[in-house]
Amino acid sequence: MNTNLNDKSDEFLMEPDRQLHFINTCKQLIFDKKAGLGRNLTYCVVTFGCQMNSHDSEKLKGILDEIGYEETENEDADLIIYNTCTIRENANLKLYGHLGHLKNLKQKNPEMIVCLCGCMMQEPHVIETIKSKYRFVDIVFGTHNLYKFAELVYTFLSTGKPVIEILEKNDLIVEALPKKRKYSFKSGINIMFGCNNFCTYCIVPYVRGREKSRKPEEIIAEAEALARVGVKEIMLLGQNVNSYDGGISFPELLRRVCKVDGIKRIRFMTSHPKDLSDELIEVMASEAKVCKHLHLPVQSGSTEILTKMNRRYTKESYLELVDKIKKAMPDISLTTDIIVGFPGETEKDFEDTLDIVKKVGYDQAYTFIYSKRTGTPAAAMDNQVPDEVIKERFPRLLKAVNENNHIDRYKGQVKEVLVEEINVQDNSLMTGRTEESLTVHFKGDADLIGQFVNVRLDECKGFYFMGTRI
Ligand code: 5AD
Ligand code: SF4
After folding, report:
1. pTM score, whole prediction
2. Which atom of ligand 1 is nearest to the CA of 372?
3. Which residues, judged by CB distance below 6 Å to any ligand atom, belong to the binding site of ligand 2?
């Protein structure tokens, strides 16, 4: 096959055409490489962190499929990508652990291309560590230039030299590139990127940059295209969807997405309590397609700690908001994120957190031990809470979450369940989710995957249900 590595036509192309050009060029290079080796080439994408990262990984997989690699779950692949997270310290440590193991794999397979991307790569000290200690890494990129993956692969293949490209910011949004969705019937859609809130513990604003919103027309076009290929449930993704500003507000965007034929369920993630408007509550309550589930991170129940966290709401205003939401949607399922051990958290502050858990009755709470992130204001605060105190508080919080969830209120109800997969532990069971995002296992066949079925929730097992299809 004729591959012109000096092809300069890319210089004149705008995105996304430029990347489509590089995808085609890589396709030819990979075709030749496979012919030379007399075998297929495989890739493995390992994803850490949140739904934004999972969605980004679908983009990377889409590009790799297109250029001729085959996916494998095995880390012993010809191309491996670690899509990293840096929200807590242990996420960073995990990556270094994996990299140690990879070095051996790469010695066995010299064709192996090792790529690192994601939030952790936006931290300069991480890049320095990779350059000095992990020299076998071939391609490194960050959160602002993920769409350039094909171009970076091309540069690596054509020069054989490591490629490290990290941008501090990028106003461009490039979305119309191939994607490989994990599920055929549900999908995420990015509506905005970055965060402007600067909660004092959080590294996200530093690694994902300032907020930028996609245009509503593009979001709607993506939802319509997904509906045409059979997607029934979509999740609108952003660090703080309530501050979406694409010329229209988030509630208005939701209204428009509801009009897309074929889309039956709409979810969104994440909502900052300080920006949750009455209009959003009204749209959620009145639009049947919007799932009655709200993830509303509280982080702490103490007004003093919330102030130090720069959350810009108080215990009382959060509880008022919850009341308003429950009044408008009595069946709503609320979930949350909570941090234990933020600097200066006293026993009294922690009791306020237990109290808010009791008053709200979350169906699920994701609980985190505070992790000091270098460069954030909280890392420099006095009164870091000792480990022994955190160890004593954490199980008390878990107990409060378990004792105060009202998930068994759904027992006996018949719910519409979108069937997602065969149960991993028991093949005779199918696993799906209700609109509240409750997990339900019930007897059924694999041909139900991707369909809505009615299931009676018979037995509550903590955070999931066993049910019967009716
Ligand atoms: N330490 C512990 N948890 C954190 N989170 C964000 N930053 C930190 C940190 N430094 C949690 C918050 C956020 C969730 C995604 O991660 O609860 O809502
Ligand atoms: Fe981090 Fe706060 Fe932004 Fe969420 S809203 S990403 S917790 S800074």
Report:
1. 0.92
2. 10
3. 195, 197-199, 202, 204-205, 239-240, 272
